[in-house]
Structure formats: structure tokens, C-alpha cells
Amino acid sequence: MAASAHVRPEDQFLCSICLDMFTDPVSTTCGHNFCKNCITQHWDNTDQYLCPMCKTVFNTRPELKINTLFAEMVAKFRQKSQEEPNSSSSEQQAAKPGEVPCDVCTETKLKALKSCLVCLTSYCDTHLQPHLTLSGLKRHHLMDPVEKLADRMCMKHDKPLELFCKTDHACVCMFCTVLEHKTHDVVPLKDEYELKKAELRKTEAEIQQMIQERRLKIQDIQQSVDLSKKSADRETAEGVEVFTALIELVQKSLNKLQEAIQEKHRSTEKQAEDFIKELEQEICELKKRSTEVETLSHSEDHLHFVQTFTSIGAAPPMKVWKQVSVRPPSYEGTVVRAVSQLEEELSKDMKDLFENELKRVQQFTVDVSLDPDTAHPALFLSDDEKQVHLGDVKQNLPHKPESFSECACVLGKQSFSSGRFYFEVQVKGKTDWELGVVRESINRKGPITPTPEDGHWIISLRNGNEYKAFACPLVYLSLKSIPQKVGVFVDYEEGLVSFYDVDSAALIFSFTGYCFSDNLLPIFGPGLNDEGKNSAPLIITTVKHTE
Prior knowledge:
The protein is an alpha+beta fold. Among the domains are: about 1-85, Herpes Virus-1 (2-Layer Sandwich); about 190-310; about 370-540, Jelly Rolls, CATH 2.60.120.920. Helices cover about 35% and strands about 15% of the residues. β16 (about 455-460) and β17 (about 465-470) form a beta hairpin. α7 (about 190-295) packs antiparallel against α8 (about 300-310).
């Protein structure tokens, strides 16, 4: 009685098979009611005739007759329900697009609250009640509503997919474990769920870690951009200052040139003006004498004529202008001399500029030493690994995979994969040498093509006076002085390799616009001995910062 008190009145008129209101209700001998069509189809699909509610077994299939009295009660209840809709049903919401609808509702499909994996049916609140109240249905596995419940059943055995085969990585039912997957590693689906969920949490943690790493990388890149902006602003300011000074110097030289030319012209103009003024004065005097002569020529006073003629009869003494001339000054060479003087001043300013540039790159000085393991067998290194020269004979050394086999070169021990670095090498007294940096991964066996495309950024001296930069194409260098000490500067991020004549503070050559992606190492080639003419070693020297 206590149990029946919790059953809602409307549940008494629901078939426990279709979970809908009875249609043509029939009663079994055990006292339970079903829709005639529901119990008939149920017994048609089973070998035993038993009551779906209490599991009472009938030896023979019972003859079913419609329970007229109960049918009338159902009809009245149905009519009443239609006239006064159930308040709880009216409060329920109709299933919206994307939501799982109740499979039992015949008219407006309400939103399902649960899905039954045994019945393979989704239920709204009203049609779910039998699963919550009837003992036979309480044992069914309910879950949050899902679509396509049939996909959760084994296609072969029509049983729930409750297990997981680790061997085949597939969901299986109980029958599968004794047939196709008999010898396989099978675990409950829940266990595999927990395992995969733990893996998913691990994956999520890894993803979050990757996100964090990328956020840090963004910060790092942004910092690099900020540093680049500061460097660009600083370099721009310095460039504006230098070029403004150069423009002022050029303008000053132009003004001086114009002034010199105008001064010559003014001197010529002044001389001409003086001559013209003197000539005009003489013309005035001559006109005056001409008037006197004209007047005297008309005089009939014999005495006056003769007396006056003596003073005006002859032309007055005047300056001889035949040899006098105004020669235009020569302006030839004026511009050339001005440009030459400007060049001298610019050279002085450029020397100051390069000295300042050299001071800046010397701030990135690193300690570089030679790596004996990379040296060609004919090369001899000093004990402090700072000097190298080519011997007359090849040393009998054990083979080393990192050494050069044909190119008489040696690499530095230190490698660089970022930032800026600078070092200096003495080349005094040599007629042949090679200097620069290379990728760590360059080929060291057999012939070598020393170009940037093959990972070499190198300049060289050949025959005592032939300087070359191994760019593409090859660049022959014209130097004003013979370098005694060469500085090598690398800006990894900028893709820049520059070479300086340290003593004259002059730029020799720059490789620009490259994208470095490998470690870079210094490279040293002392050149052939040339019968003692090139016996001086290459020496890595201590950098003495330019004052």
C-alpha cells in the first residue's frame, strides 16, 4: 500500500510496454493490464509466455479479452485529460532544434529528459515516470538524452555496447566477448572512459602548455620587435644627424664655390667699370676740346686765331688704350677643386663615422679560439689555439669526421645561434688568407664552394693585392690601404656579416639581408706557404677598443 501511494493516478492508465495510455486494455490472469496489441506483439517475439511486469510464466498462451470496465475507465480518463491538460505536461517545453525529442509523444514532441539504453527510447517527464516508479523498469540504464540510440547497440547481437576491446579499439557487447573478441583484451566501457578521460585531461594540459609557450613566444617576438623599434629609432636618429651634417657640409662647400666664382666675376666687373669710367672721362675732355676747335675754326680774328691755335691745335695727351683689355677670368677647375676639398672633408667625417661604428661593434667582442678537431692536417696550431699557419708537410693525424680534408681551413670552437659577436684577426705580413663565418653544417670533405648559398660568408686576399668577397657574383674589393688587422662582426638576427680594417677604421665589405637558421662558426684559412712568402700565421688578437 505504501508503494502504491507514491504512484500517480494517471500512471494507472499507462501501458508498461508502450508507456502510453491503454488502447484496448486486456488483463492477464496475474492481474496486470496491457494494450492488447502490445502484449500480443511481445509474446509473438518470445519463446516463453510470461508477464512483462511480474514475470509470471504461463504454460500456454493465454486467451486475451478486452477488459470492458477498465477500457471505459481509460476512455473517461483520456477524455478528462484532453479537457484539462496535465499541468506538469503543459509546463514541459517542446523540443527545439538540436534538442532530443521524446520518442513516445504522438503530437507535440516534448523535450526528452532521459534516454533508456534498454528500451532504446528517449522520454519526456511524463513518459519517463514508469522507469522511475515500476520495479521492472527501474533496473533499466538511464542516461542524459542522446540521439540515435540504435548506434549504441551491437549491430550483430542487438545488445548494448557496454565493453571496449583494447585489441581492436572498438566498442563491443557481452556476446562479442565470447565470440569474435574471445581472446582479446576487453574492459568495461566505463573503465576505458575513465582512462581516456585521464588521457584527455593530459592532452588538455599539454595543449594549455603549448598555448602558454606560444603566448610566451609572442611576448618574446614582441620584445624583439620593441628592441628592433628602439634600435631603428636610434639608428635613424644617428643617420639623420650624420646626413644632416653631411648636407650642411655639402651646402657649405657649394656656398664657398659660388662665393669664389662670384668673387672672380666681381673683380673682373670692377676692373671693367674702372676702365669704362676712365674712358668716359677722356671722352668728355675730347668733346670739350672738339667744341673749342670747332669754335676757333669759325673765328675771323687773325691775331686771336693764331694765339689760340698754339694751345688747342694739337690733340691733348691721352692714355693709349690699344693694349688695354679686360680678360674674363678662367673658371676651369674651380668645381673640381671644390669637390676635391669636399671629398677631403667628407673622408675625414667618414673616418670619424667608421671609428664610431667600429667602437660600437667592438662592444660585442667574444673570445674565439681555434678548434684542432676541425683543422686540415697540413695546418699547425699554437698551444694557446690562437694562431694558425700552413706547414710544408702534411701531418700524419688520425682521421676526424669534423676536420677539413681538402680545404686548408680551421673553424673556431665557439658557435653562435643568436645575437651579435665580434673578433679580430691579425693578417700582417701575409699574401694569402681567408676569413669569415660559416654554417656549422657545411661540407668539410672534398672541394668547397665558399658562397653564402653554401653557408660561407668569407673575404680573402690572393697574391698580395687581390681582395675578394665571395658573394654571388664574386666582388673584387678596392682598398685604400692594406689591412694589418681585420675585424669580423656578425648580427645574427639582422643577417649581417661585416669586415673592418681595424687600423684605418674603414669598412671593407658587408654581406647583408641573409636569414641565418643554423649555428655559425668563425673560419680561418692561412693560405699556402708560397715558399716562405706567406709563412706568417693568422693570429686571433685581443681587441683593443678604439679610443
